[in-house]
Amino acid sequence: MQETKPTITIKGTRDGLILFIDENSSFEEILQDLIKKLDASTPQKEEPVVSVKVKLGHRYLTEEQRHQLKGIIEEKNRFQIEAMESDVIPIKDAKTWLDESQLKVVNQIVRSGQVLETKGDLLLIGDVNPGGRVRASGNIYIMGNLLGIAHAGIEGDQEAFIAASYMKPAQLRIAEYISRAPDYEADGVYMECGIIDPDQNKIVIDSIKTLSKQRKVISAFERRMNNG
Amino acid sequence: MGEAIVITSGKGGVGKTTTSANIGTSLALMDKKVCLIDTDIGLRNLDVIMGLENRIIYDIVDVIQGRCKLQQALIKDKRFDYLSLLPAAQTSDKSAVTTEGMKEIVSELKQEYDYIIIDCPAGIEQGFQNAIAGADRAIVVTTPENSSVRDADRIIGLIEKEDMIEPPRLIINRIRNHMMKNGDMLDIDDIVQLLAIDLIGIVADDEEMIKAANKGEPISLSPNFKASISYRNIARRILGETVPLQSLEEEKGFMQKVKAFFKI
Ligand SMILES: Nc1ncnc2c1ncn2[C@@H]1O[C@H](COP(=O)(O)OP(=O)(O)OP(=O)(O)O)[C@@H](O)[C@H]1O
Ligand SMILES: [Mg+2]
């Protein structure tokens, strides 16, 4: 007796299709079944592109396998993959995540010409002097004066932000956004943070108090978990 | 065993050589045995400010390359028995001096002298590396200008990575009181706060300084000028005395920032 559990289950939702891929079948089997299933459903003419979420369960796919799977699903331009979710990640990736999500505490003055760079969030206890630079893949918190350049989210995290007890920076950078100090002599600000405002599509400086509304998840690790 | 102090700044022309000559002279006035070293190869001028140029026979490069003994290259000051100068070479071959060579010279001089004052060239290249190589302590000179303070900050960062007895100390040179009052010059407090190192002295901008330099007589030899008193006070602080900052300084009330310097 053999219980034939389907290798692929398709569910339709309002937002598109969800493809559940059985954890126990071999990858070869899955690819073959997938091709069959897709061919079976003959497309109507002028059908809009459907968005697809692939749920892998406890299966881990290599980069190459993911590519293969994507190739088959998107081949006839009828589907577009929105996400491929797996409940497992390799230890190596987990370690990188952990690295990137730790809060690194540094106690020093970052002087002119010096660069301080960390993975994850950076808590600097000390000043960043003019000509000094701090860089982090996550958020930057400065308990001191930010007078040089701070770059948060250096690997592209647009949710990252920069907070300082006092800031009069030469530049603030978040992900690929850059803002610089005005050309006129301006006073610095106390207890403020720099954050990307998606509406204005630029970095804005706001009171630290507003952070709780705009960045609910402050920890870099949770951000990773949520955004993958 | 003596102590070697390097006088450095990053930016050029802010007063390293003037400071070296005057600290050296002031220490000699207090009966200390002092040797000045000019490490500005190719642009020597400590000998000129000390008025000793015409006595030079050998220089630091001759010593390092073995053309003479260290003792032969030392020039004795006209005024003090125990104030000597090891002059820089006028050659343009800056690679003639190495950090190793400097360390050897400094440690040999420390056997005989109480203080070795090393005048550093501008910049952060090899000449700077050589000058700080043998030093136990550093004094950073800045003027109250943004660019000069910025370079001082850079230099402090580099010195902090070296193996010195303690963080460098700061001299703010060429202060013009009225400009500072009007806010046209950086404030002393702001400079000290930014650089976050202890202040060992401040020196006014003084025309007499230029006259003295031209005469080859360090201003600290004549007790009547403000700048002279400033240098003497710096020397006393080097010896570990607690000396309050003088009048030009008192108005600001940052005396507490000057800590007993070089306490042994
Ligand atoms: N407090 C002062 N008041 C007036 N003039 C000064 C003062 N300090 C230095 N000077 C003048 O500034 C000029 C530069 O000084 P000095 O040669 O000591 O600087 P430096 O830092 O050694 O320069 P370099 O980097 O070229 O070696 C000289 O002409 C000197 O007389
Ligand atoms: Mg000089």
TrEMBL record, chain A:
Residue span(s) of domain Septum site-determining protein MinC N-terminal: 8-82
Pfam families to which the protein is assigned, alphabetical: MinC_C, MinC_N_1
Record keywords, A-Z: Cell cycle, Cell division, Septation
Residues making up the signal peptide according to the UniProt record: none
Iron in keyword set: no
Occurrences of domain Septum formation inhibitor MinC C-terminal (ranges): 105-205
Cell membrane listed as a keyword: no
Domain of life: Bacteria
GO biological process assignments: cell morphogenesis; division septum assembly; regulation of cell septum assembly
Record function comment: Cell division inhibitor that blocks the formation of polar Z ring septums. Rapidly oscillates between the poles of the cell to destabilize FtsZ filaments that have formed before they mature into polar Z rings. Prevents FtsZ polymerization.
Assembly: Interacts with MinD and FtsZ.
HAMAP family for this protein: MinC
Homology family: Belongs to the MinC family.
Protein known as: Probable septum site-determining protein MinC
Organism: Oceanobacillus sojae
Automatic annotation (TrEMBL), chain B:
PANTHER family reported in the protein's UniProt record: SEPTUM SITE-DETERMINING PROTEIN MIND HOMOLOG, CHLOROPLASTIC (PTHR43384:SF6), SEPTUM SITE-DETERMINING PROTEIN MIND HOMOLOG, CHLOROPLASTIC-RELATED (PTHR43384)
Record GO biological process: division septum assembly; negative regulation of cell division
Recorded family membership: Belongs to the ParA family. MinD subfamily.
Binding site for ATP: 11-18
InterPro entries: AAA_dom, MinD, MinD_FleN, P-loop_NTPase, ParA/MinD_ATPase
Higher taxonomy: Bacteria, Bacillati, Bacillota, Bacilli, Bacillales
Name of encoding gene: minD
Protein known as: Septum site-determining protein MinD
Function of the protein: ATPase required for the correct placement of the division site. Cell division inhibitors MinC and MinD act in concert to form an inhibitor capable of blocking formation of the polar Z ring septums. Rapidly oscillates between the poles of the cell to destabilize FtsZ filaments that have formed before they mature into polar Z rings.
Entry superkingdom: Bacteria
Pfam family, one: AAA_31
A molecular function GO annotation: ATP hydrolysis activity
